[in-house]
Amino acid sequence: MTDETIHDEVLRLAAEAAIDYRAQPAPGFEQVASFEQVLETLDACLPENPADPAEVIGELVSKMTPGLRPMTSPTFFGWVIGGSHPTGVAADWLTSAWGQNSGNVVITPAAAAAEQIVSTWLLELLGLPPTSSVGFVTGATIANFVALAAARGELLRRVGWDVERQGLYGAPVIEVLIGADAHATVYSALRYLGLGSERVKAIETDE
Q: pTM (2 decimals)?
């Protein structure tokens, strides 16, 4: 079997397993295997030799599926963490298969062009100036980080301090006000940005 044939088979196996999973009825909360159960199933010695690609995918599916929460189900209301849309999943498959390292317009013109169009659409959708800068992040945690980084940079710029160039050593103190019920990731972002998670002023909130 050639490398190309193996690659085709592995991709098909993964796609078929994904399609089958999405078509199955969503398991109940208590039907999902626990962390300990999945860990025990996965536990094995570090392999010393390569494994058959098809077996790797098959084993991954069989061992992981019991521990998957049905977050893609329309009846899943646990936490506010959402699932995925079939079209988005298909586009994500293509993105992974294309394997573009989208650093700039020369290296990956297609990825850069797609990002530019989506940026334009977002600015139009939100009614923001077309000259606004747009950045795409991996999720809410990094979104909080980027927003706080932008705020930190702008506040210090207004008092003549370039934090990107000069860092925070000797920088003017920034006062941070935060809701008492803020998500834990906001505090993480403050730590990463050198603003500290305990120097903030928490503001009490009510219902």
A: 0.73
Are 94 and 106 in a shared domain?
no
Could you tell me if 9 and 92 lie in one domain?
yes
Into how many domains does the chain fold? Answer: 3
Q: How many CB atoms lie within 10 A of CB 9?
A: 14
The phi-psi region of residue 125 (left if phi > 0; otherwise alpha if psi is between -120 and 50; otherwise beta) is alpha
Q: What letter does residue 168 receive in the DSSP assignment? A: S
CB 70 within 8 A of CB 26: yes
pLDDT, tens digit, 9 for 90 and up, residues 71-129: 888 778 777 776 788 899 999 999 999 999 888 899 999 999 999 999 999 999 999 99
CA distance 99 to 148: 30
pLDDT digits (tens, 9 = 90+) for 136-180: 998 888 999 999 999 999 999 999 999 999 999 999 999 999 999
Q: Are 197 and 191 in contact (CB under 8 A)?
A: yes
Q: Which domain holds residue 127?
A: 102-135
- CB contact set of 72 (below 8 Å; sequence gap of 6+): 22, 83, 84
